[in-house]
């Protein structure tokens, strides 16, 4: 297969393996670069006012976006997270109503995938496929969004139960944002609609982590950033518990889950928690 994303991503996503395996990887699956909600790409209509300072850069003194929400990225245009900024802070990027250029340093996730990544069958059969990088990716760089269908909590629970009963793979994640007054949940299911992030496996010592990023919509993008330098050829991983905020041990407390239903973790990390974490609230 030429491109797993079928031309949707800015860069081609290759498949390493047989044509048969490549077809199995994308069978019954529609590729989108960003999540969809109610049948529409999230943010296809912009819900925010943009910043208006034509000809000037989005310096926080003059920019409505950065001045209000703060800056999470370095201002050098490299798109790297600023390590001095609290990594729990939600990120607001310049949006389609902003007057700044497409190259504005506060547009990173909005510009999409820029690294060459590839899908392949994992050496460990139970893991299915994997996503790996052909490029060296520096720590702090945005890699890709976890895109899928945005669903309500009750629908996420229904699908999760169904997939568990049929022993189907479960890709649903719930991103939680804690504000002072409430917890904001976003449930994402990339089972039938989504992007290459669905091929990313769990690791107890991952090289990617989630940040929530808002561009045109109140619904956040679940954006995966490199938490360490990633050498070319390395598999990309995130901690499923990072999205669910529930570790393997805590999950065993849930009475609905039989011990046998838990899935063994084969990440091979020295600190491996033995079982895949999952969300007890789903
Ligand atoms: Zn601005
Ligand atoms: Zn702006
Ligand atoms: Zn801007």
Automatic annotation (TrEMBL):
**Pfam families in UniProt:** Pre-SET (PF05033), SET (PF00856)
Q: Where is the Post-SET domain?
A: 261-277
Q: Which GO terms describe its cellular component?
A: chromosome; nucleus
Q: Where in the cell is it found?
A: Chromosome
User: Which InterPro entries does the record associate with it?
Assistant: H3K9_Histone-Lys_N-MTase, Post-SET_dom, Pre-SET_dom, SET_dom, SET_dom_sf
Q: Which domain of life is it from?
A: Eukaryota
What sequence ranges are listed for the domain SET?
115-241
* Matches recorded under SUPFAM superfamilies: SET domain (SSF82199)
Ranges where the Pre-SET domain occurs:
54-112
Keywords recorded for this protein, A-Z: Chromosome, Metal-binding, Methyltransferase, S-adenosyl-L-methionine, Transferase, Zinc
Question: A Gene Ontology MF term for this entry?
Answer: histone methyltransferase activity
Please report the name of this protein according to its UniProt entry.
Histone-lysine N-methyltransferase
Source organism of this protein record:
Chytriomyces confervae
Lineage of the organism? Eukaryota, Fungi, Fungi incertae sedis, Chytridiomycota, Chytridiomycota incertae sedis
